[in-house]
Amino acid sequence: MATRSFELVQEVARTGTFERQGSTFRSWVEDREHARFPAEAGRYHVYVSRACPWSHRVILARTIKRLEAVIGISYVHPFRDSRGWAFPGGEYVDRAEGSAFLAEAYERARPGNTDRISVPVLWDTHERVIVNNESADIVRMLNDAFARWASPVDLYPEPLRPAIEAINDWVYRDINNGVYRAGFAATQDAYDRAFDALFASLDRAEALLATRRYLTGSSLTEADWRLWVTLVRFDRVYHTHFRCNGRRVADYPNLWGFTRELYQRPGVAETIAWDEILKHYYTTHDMLNPKRLIPRGPIAIDFSAPHDRERLTSAAP
Hints:
It is a single chain. With 317 residues, the chain is α/β, with parallel strands linked by helices. It folds into 2 domains: 7-149, Glutaredoxin; 158-312, Up-down Bundle (Glutathione S-transferase Yfyf (Class Pi), Chain A, domain 2). It contains 9 helices and 6 strands; from the N terminus they run βββαβαββααααααα. The strands form 2 sheets. It has a 4-stranded mixed sheet with strand order 4-3-5-6, sandwiched between helices. β3, α1 (53-64) and β4 form a beta-alpha-beta unit. It is globular and about 50 Å long. It starts with 28 loop residues before the first strand and ends in a 33-residue tail after the last helix. The relative contact order is 0.14.
């Protein structure tokens, strides 16, 4: 198996701006006759990293939709070296294919693959191919294609779709990917622009959540979870490691209450593995943290503390 360095799979333009490569597997599981990938219980498997926010979206959707018995899951080890995401044993085992590295699945799906080896991955165990490696698509499939096996929770309700799409656009650009654009910026100007956009959009989210319980109003949707996976990591990782130190999430009353509320929903705290999150970020990015020291702070951050978000239950957009 060929190796590749972490730096080679991260795109930094000549301007010093971090540009995330797009996902290349974009097929779709559908619950209909004659579908290329038909929805079937037990057929599909997801490869994820508990450290990764993009994977965390998929883990959350699988949990919220109660699809644990329908879709299998394998966790990669949080440390990623030049060989990429690995399955060294123990709890980090490829339960679908028995591979030692996730790159082997990419090679099976597309021999001679030179694409970025990323998580999450939706794998078809029947045809032994990658269906999709775009987290946003996989969440939508878990919400819709597997509905007959899932809980009735709808993460993407039809009436709210225009609002969800509009919010997803700037949340992804400036916050989800924005922390990476700041962290991996190679010039001062690129960093400054990413930093300013990030905190302008955090301010925007704070203002929205001052008048409504969730981003689109009184319904909890995928837009909230997409924002949340970044917020929950922010103070312990991005604030320090990616130099996103303008403010902490804990300094925003509404964002911090929102973060605590979602953390306290049934089953959510169990999807977070802090040891893996910290190990991944602080020991994998040698260009940012060559000594691989893991900070112990912040002190006294309590995701289980009470919040008062219920007061906004009936708030309208």
